[in-house]
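Shipment paperwork, digital attachment
Item: protein structure file
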Amino acid sequence: MATQPEHLKTILSSWKNGLMSLDDAAAYMKSQAPPLQILATG
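Attachment content:
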């Protein structure tokens, strides 16, 4: 999703227009987010 700004704009527009609840929008964005990479230090 981070590489698809237009897709993110669509999700946020749906939330703003009341087509999707904030919880639904947040859950969807979390499910689409790439896993965090933990950098080893030292």
